[in-house]
Design brief:
two-stranded antiparallel ribbon, globular, about 20% strand, alpha+beta
Length: about 200
């Protein structure tokens, strides 16, 4: 059984035990274009572009459930969610040098590198926690010198972001057509939620 199949199986188990999740999951999936973050600001983005720029459309129930989990953490401010400006939009994974040249102009204090290989994360975003420009959020109030999260560029599924959250406590998304990288970080919440989150 592949990892994506295992995630789907676990989510179906959860939803079958709590049928109220069915309409919630399908609503998040069906109406993803209508859910906006930073509405009215240059960094405005829909859940469709943030979560559903998929190469192949995923299962609506699985995707909707995962989006709902991220939505709950963001809406309750239990996760750090930061829009980070970059000079241009990303190109395809094959354009590694071009994408990395754009990332050279990422806003302080962040540093990012794009790899674009077929395996694992597309790249890494990091910053010095002691930098005067470092973002401040309760989820990032841990004793670390360097913060580092996986970067996913262009097409990406909710399942991939869920795995990154489980492995890293957060992720960064640079969607196609966007001049912003969106950082989601909730390492403390991950520790608290370990028993209830999907484990494989």
């Amino acid at each position: 059984m592949s990892l994506s199949e295992a995630i789907k199986f676990k989510i179906y188990e959860i939803v079958e035990k709590s049928p109220d999740w069915f309409p919630i999951c399908f609503s998040f999936y069906k109406n993803a274009s209508n859910y906006l973050i930073d509405e009215g600001h240059p960094s405005q983005i829909s859940y469709k572009d943030l979560f559903l720029q998929e190469y192949v459309s995923g299962d609506a129930l699985t995707s909707g459930y995962i989006i709902g989990q991220f939505h709950a953490l963001i809406a309750s401010q239990k996760a750090a969610f930061i829009a980070i400006a970059v000079p241009d939009v990303p190109l395809a994974n094959s354009q590694r040098e071009h994408n990395n040249s754009i990332l050279q102009g990422i806003a302080q204090p962040f540093k990012a590198e794009f790899d674009g290989t077929s395996w694992g994360e597309d790249g890494i975003i990091e910053w010095d926690a002691q930098d005067t420009f470092a973002p401040i959020h309760p989820e990032l109030a841990l004793n670390r010198d360097i913060w580092r999260f996986p970067l996913e560029v262009g097409t990406c599924s909710p399942t991939t972001l869920w795995v990154r959250f489980m492995d890293w406590g957060g992720w960064a998304r640079w969607p196609y057509h966007s001049q912003y990288i969106y950082l989601f970080a909730a390492p403390k919440q991950l520790r608290r939620m370990k028993d209830s989150l999907l484990k494989f």
